[in-house]
Amino acid sequence: MIKKIKGTQDILPEETPQWVALENLIRRIMDRYNFRELRTPIFEQTQLFARGIGQLTDIVSKEMYTFLDRGKKQLTLKPEMTAPIMRAYIENKLYAKAPMNKLFYIAPLFRQENPQAGRLRQFHQFGAETLGTPDPLADAEIIDLTLTVFNEIGLKNLSLRINSVGDPVCRSPYKKQLQDYILPKLDQYCPDCQRRYEENPLRILDCKNPTCVELNRNAPKLTDNLCDDCNRHYLKVKDQLKLLSIPFVEDPYLVRGLDYYTRTVFEITSDALGAQNAICGGGRYDLLANELSGPETPAVGFAAGMERLLMVMEQQKIQLQAPARLDVFLAALGENAKKETLKWLKRLRTAGFSAETDFLDRSIKAQMREANRQKARFVLILGDNELKQNRFSVKLMDKGEQLNIPFDEVISFLKEQNKK
Ligand code: HAM
Predict the structure, then answer these.
(1) Among 87, 73, 88, which Cα is nearest to 291's?
(2) The whole model's pTM is what?
(3) How far does residue 25's CA lie from ligand 1's centre (Å)?
(4) Does any domain span residue 195?
(5) What does the pLDDT look like over 255-282, one tens digit per residue?
(6) Cα 146 to middle of ligand 1, angstroms
(7) For a substitution probing ligand 1, which of 48, 58, 80 has the most ligand atoms within 8 Å of its CB?
C-alpha cells in the first residue's frame, strides 16, 4: 500500500470545517487591519532562501526540500513565506504602487525536520508582513494583529516574549563580547553550539539543550548593548504594547532561527503544547530587501503555525464551526420515485438547501438511519402513494412530527420551517 510521506497529514472531511472557519476568521481580521493577500508559488530558486534566510540557519543548512528540475535548475519547496513575499514585492515593484504594503498569506510550507507532535514536514502558516516602514508603530500593530486573531479564536494562556536583536552596528561588538564569554567553556557546549560559535554566536543563546541553557545563564545581553537608535526603537515598541494593554515578557536571550532579523523579535507560546510550544514568531527585517537586491525596505511581520493553533484549539475545546448538518434527505421508495429524485434534489439545492438522497437502493428504514447519521433537519419521503397524491410525507426530525405537504408548496414550507 502506498502511504503518505512521513511528516505530512491528510486533512479529513470531518476536520476541514474547522480549517475553513479558522481561515475565514483570519481573512476577516486581516481585512479589518487592512492587510491584502499575496500568493506566491510553491517553489522558488534555492538562492532566494539561501540568501534570504541565511546559509548557516538550520532551515537552509539541513531542512530544505531542494532538487534539480529537468533543466538542472536548483529549486526549493518554500520553507517560509517572508523571503518569497519580499521577492514578489521587489519583482512586481509593489514599492512603486504604494508607499507602504501590508500583505498577508495562508500557505503550505515544507521543512525536512524530525516529525513529532506539532512538527511536520508539510505544515501551514498564516502570517502578515508590513513592508516599507521602520516605524515602531508597525511592529506593535503586527503583534496586536497576531494576538487579536488568537483572542478572537478564544485561545487562553498564551505568553508573548519580545526582544531586540539590534542591527549590524550594535551587533558586531556584542558578538565579540558574547564569544569572549563563551570561549572559556566552549568545549562544554553542545556540538551544534560549537559549530555556531564562529559564524553565528547569537544562535547559541537560543539553544534549548539544558547544559547550554545553564552555561548561558550569565551571558551578556544584547539589550544592554544596543545602539541609541535601536534602543529608542525598542522602547517605543514596548510603550505601544503597554498603551494597547498587551502583556509581554522581555527575554534578552530570544534569538530567532532565521538570520534576517534586525531590532524587534517576538514569539508567542502556548502552555497547551509540549516541546514545540511556539505558535507564532516574527520580527523586523530591515535589511532583507537589500540582501535580495531590492530597494531599501524596512519591514516587520509574523507567521503562525496553523496545525499548532488547531492543536491548542482542540485541547481548549474551541470549535469555530458547529459540525455540518444536512438540511434535507430525500428518501425515495420504488422505481418511479427514484426517477424523480435528482430533479427534486436540484430544486431543493437551487432554493439554497443542502440536499441528499440514497444512491445505494436501500430500504426506507436504512434510508432513515442514513438521514439520522447525516443529522438531516428534514426528510422528504417519496413513494408511489406520494406520487399519486402529488404530496411529500415530510418528517421534521428535530420535532419528531410528520406532515403531508403538496409538491408545489414543499419548498416554501421548508423555508418557513427553517426560520423557526
Ligand atoms: P518560524 O518561527 O520559522 O518563522 O515559523 C513560524 C511558526 O510556524 C512557528 O512558530 C510554528 O508555529 C510554525 N512552524 C514552523 N515550523 C513548523 C513545522 N515544521 N511544523 C509545524 N509548524 C511549524 C517564520 O517562518 C518567519 N517567516 C516568520 C516571520 C514572518 N518573521 C517575519 N515575518
Answers:
(1) 87
(2) 0.94
(3) 20
(4) no
(5) 998 999 999 999 999 988 887 789 999 9
(6) 13
(7) 80
Helix, strand, coil in percent for the chain, rounding step 5:
45, 20, 35
**Domain total for the chain?**
2
141 Cβ inside 6 Å of ligand 1 = no
Closest of 318, 315, 341 to residue 328, by C-alpha:
341
- Ligand 1: distance of its center to the CA of 279 in Å? 8
CATH of the domain at 410: 3.40.50.800
Pocket perturbation via mutation, ligand 1, pick of 64, 86, 102, 123 by most ligand atoms within 8 A of CB: 123
> Is 233 contained in some domain?
yes
Nearest residue CA, atom 31 of ligand 1?
Answer: 282
Q: What is the DSSP letter of 322?
A: P
Q: Is the CB of 84 under 6 A from ligand 1?
A: no
Any domain includes 51: yes
* 3-class DSSP state of 332: strand
Q: Which amino acid is at 415?
A: K
Structure-block grid coordinates of residue 56: 548557516
- Residue range of the domain that includes 310: 16-167+227-315
Tell me the pLDDT tens digit for each residue of 374-404.
Answer: 999 999 999 999 999 999 999 999 999 999 9
As a whole-number percent, the residues of the chain with pLDDT over 70 amount to 100
Q: Which atom of ligand 1 is nearest to the CA of 308?
A: 12
Q: Is 81 near ligand 1, meaning CB less than 6 Å away?
A: yes
Return d(Cα 47, Cα 49) in angstroms, integer.
5
Contact 414, 328 (CB under 8 A): yes
Q: Within this chain, do residues 409 and 297 fall inside the same structural domain, yes or no?
A: no
Residues 25-81 pLDDT 10s: 999 999 999 999 999 999 999 999 999 999 888 899 999 999 999 999 999 999 999
Does any ligand 1 atom lie closer than 6 A to the CB of residue 286?
no
- At residue 418, the pLDDT reads 84
